[in-house]
Amino acid sequence: MAKTIFEKLDGKYERQGDYLIPCLTVPAEEEQPIGVWGQRHLDYLKQYRKVTYTNLLTSGKLNTYLADINRQAQERFYWLIEGMKQAQGITEQLKAENALEWTGRLGNIRACAREIVNEEIVYA
């Protein structure tokens, strides 16, 4: 009997009653921690980009991809906050003189940076 394409690629079968079922496995990938940005992107992929999600999952590259997205987003978030703090003149002196104003202004900056990162990286 001629070999199937699956058998030519070193595929294995498992007998289930009268049928031979191919033993399919997902390639193993390196486990990497995924932060909040990666989790948000994962939810976005599952809901709006199902084909991309399935392709990454079945190729064994999903975890690596999400860890990379998380790293990019975290770096962008940090640099946005630092740039906005310098542009608006938010310093340690302001923190010492008026902690409440410093907290409010920094909270606004963090919210703006979060929206930019979500728009540019997480939900793109």
Automatic annotation (TrEMBL):
Pfam families tied to this protein: TnpV
Domain of life per record: Bacteria
Protein name: TnpV protein
Organism in which the protein naturally occurs: Sporofaciens musculi
